[in-house]
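ugh ok fine here u go
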Amino acid sequence: MALSYRLGTASALALLLAGTSLAQDRAVTYTLYGTPGLLEMPSALSADDGEIAGTVGYFGGQLRTSFTFQVTPRLSGTFRYTGIPDYSEGDDAFWDRSFDLRFRFNDEGRYLPALAVGLQDFLGTGVYSAEYLVATKTVGDAFRVTAGLGWGRLGTYNGFSNPLGALGERFETRPDVFESGDEGGTPGVEAFFRGDAAFFGGLEWAPSERWILKAEYSSDDAYLDSQGDPLFDRDSPLNFGVTWRPLPGVQLGLGYLYGTQLSFTGTVTVNPNNRPFGAGFDPAPQPVAVRAEALRAAQSWDRSTLPEATLRDRLREALRTEGIELLSVDLTDRSARLRYSNTRYRAEAQAMGRVARILTQELPPSIESLTLEPVQSGIPLSAVTFARSSIEAYENEVGGTAASLDQAAFGNAGSAAGLVPVPPGRDAFTWGLRPYFGLLLFNADDNFRVSFGAELSAAYRIRPNLILSGAIRQPLLRSGGEGADEEEPINGIPVVRRNAGLYGDDGNPTLEDLTLAYYGRPGRDLFSRVTVGYLESMYGGVSAEVLWKPVESRLGVGAEVNYAVQRDYDQLFEFRDYDTVTGHVSAYYDFGNGFHGQVDAGRYLAGDWGATVTLDREFENGWSVGGYFTLTDISFEDFGEGSFDKGIRVTIPLDFALGRPTRREVSNTLRSLNRDGGARLNVDGRLYDTVRQGHYGDLEDSWGRFWR
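structure:
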């Protein structure tokens, strides 16, 4: 496949970014490696907290595409996919995946520079393997000076004996942990900060907000092919370049490297902390109706003038205008308890605030206690109780958002006793027709495939917690994969994912999924799900799950068991001759500040046993960026290239891009390589992500939207 065709491979994530950041630190630009720095050399600068950058860089016949995420204000990570056509013999280009980590120790002070340490290509084949310590200092308003000490390939030009040798002789020699033909994917810990070291550095000058001029001294003299021959002529360690920012969130760079090579870079950045539409285009909520002091003392309401049935109808219609479906109500002279389903707002806290406002408008003055029970997939998630007088007091009060959270009481949703069902305000049958975009990366020998077409989806709620749903797709455009052969088992490991590119390859309509799902609450703090049918594009069968998750607990524990049968390649109703039982025990933990961890231990689709560790950072506006890795009893050698399953996943809420409220989102997982080991079913509607929307942790994180 031609190098130019692969231009979009890993940088396809730049398309996923769906927008540009609103604000930039003029000092932070991205290198050809996709990391904050000069041209090739790193700096100690960090991007703004949460910033995501997609970078494409080209020079010397090499194409690098990178995805960088500023995980915390000081920690960042990078995934990189590089093509080097002349690296090895033969017509096929060499394609390499690599991961970086960088940590900044301190903020820059008046006299003290920012200091950072980095690991480059620490989890790959080691082509770009290096470590570094670097310092950066601002001089005046427009200059930045960077100086660093590098090891590995950053210690290959004018290198000298490792100063860490004073700590022990083992630091003086760098072992070759990345041998030729290595499958990659394992950390080269034994080589970290070992072997010769060398100095690098550079200068940046920003004459204006849009232009930054750069000069650097590079300590990298390791541009060699697999035989040890130079990839290009290197006449000088000095590199020069310029970065231009034509628009916020867009950087374009041009450079002259090593005395012989022109370089080009393009970077798109987005920060989930910054909404492109500010507060968005949400319709204005109803104002809180404040009762007169005399009315607050009322002990009952006159049902002859306002019958309960009439009040229920009024509440149903008022909530319906907000995209909220009223399910049932329990009314007394002094209290109101409502169950409702939020169909419009991504944050349950925002829907809850809208419900509370409407209740102050519609309820009789005697009702003081308001208990709201959000419901998703027919499951009541929690019960949040407010004093109506507090809602009246805090709407326009400074600090009212925090005060309303403090006075709210959180607990389990009650039983159905006393609740009067409300006739549904929407049809039980819903459907939609929309375009779809499919992206398959790093699948066996086909590293990039894109598909586009139309999707017809429908759902029928037989009961609120019993849902029949499905989707049919008609591909209109599909790249790659023509004439691909069926993959065969490697070392006896069943092919459970490597044939993904063969599914729906004939261009005919496909059945993406067709399931019947039942959700329940078998006990206190317990939730359950059973799904049967065509569970995903590659598998059908039965999936059952139970989750223990108290409303105010950061911890959740679940278990899932599945019987899965591999579907036929036409993605219609037939099955192939492979079935298996999989299952996992899972632990979920909310670390606070948007960080969520998950550990799943059990049996995977290929019959292997092991565990998956995941860490995600979720933002208040619904963005989520995370990473995972899976280790099973399949050896690194049997797993093949990449050694074990690992990757990055990104979720973008559509309200971020559209500016109007919607619960829809777009998700993509970027695996280092799509292999068979550590593969799980992709079952829709898993309990944890459904249930926690209405629990204290998620409500607290999004409570800033309560009054919106």
